[in-house]
C-alpha cells in the first residue's frame, strides 16, 4: 500500500512537471526514441531471433513512441492555452493530465 501511494505521488509530480515544462518531455521523448531505434538496429543485426518476437518487441516500442508523441502534442495544447482533460499512456506510468477551463 505504501509503495502504491509513493508511485502515485511520483506519477503526479511527473505529470505536473511535464505540464509546467514541456522541454522535459521532449528530452525524454528524444532519448526514448533514440533508444528504440537502437534496439531496432540491434534486433535487425543479430541472428537467431524469432521473427514474430522481433516484430512484437518493435511494435511495442513503436506504440510507446507514439504515446510519447501524443503526450507531447497534448502538452503543447496546454502551453497554448487550449484546455484539455486527457489520459495518456506513458511507457513507465499512466499520466492523467487535468486542466480546468
From TrEMBL:
Domain Orange: 28-61
Cell compartments where the protein resides: Nucleus
Gene3D superfamilies: 6.10.250.980
Keyword annotations of the record: DNA-binding, Nucleus, Transcription, Transcription regulation
Keyword Transferase: no
One of the GO BP terms on file: regulation of DNA-templated transcription
Xref: InterPro entries: HES_HEY, Orange_dom
SMART domains in alphabetical order: ORANGE
A GO MF label: DNA binding
Main location as per UniProt: nucleus
One cellular component (GO) term of this entry: nucleus
Recorded superkingdom: Eukaryota
Pfam families noted in UniProt: Hairy_orange
Coiled coil: none
Full protein name: Deadpan-like protein
Source organism per UniProt: Euroglyphus maynei (Mayne's house dust mite)
Amino acid at each position: 500500500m505504501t509503495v502504491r501511494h509513493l508511485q502515485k505521488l511520483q506519477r503526479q509530480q511527473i505529470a505536473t512537471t511535464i505540464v509546467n515544462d514541456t522541454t522535459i518531455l521532449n528530452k525524454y521523448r528524444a532519448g526514448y526514441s533514440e533508444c528504440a531505434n537502437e534496439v531496432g538496429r540491434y534486433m535487425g543485426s543479430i541472428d537467431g531471433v524469432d521473427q514474430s518476437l522481433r516484430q512484437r518487441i518493435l511494435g511495442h516500442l513503436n506504440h510507446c513512441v507514439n504515446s510519447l508523441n501524443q503526450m507531447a502534442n497534448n502538452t503543447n495544447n496546454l502551453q497554448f492555452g487550449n484546455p484539455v482533460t486527457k489520459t495518456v499512456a506513458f511507457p513507465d506510468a499512466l499520466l492523467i493530465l487535468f486542466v480546468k477551463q
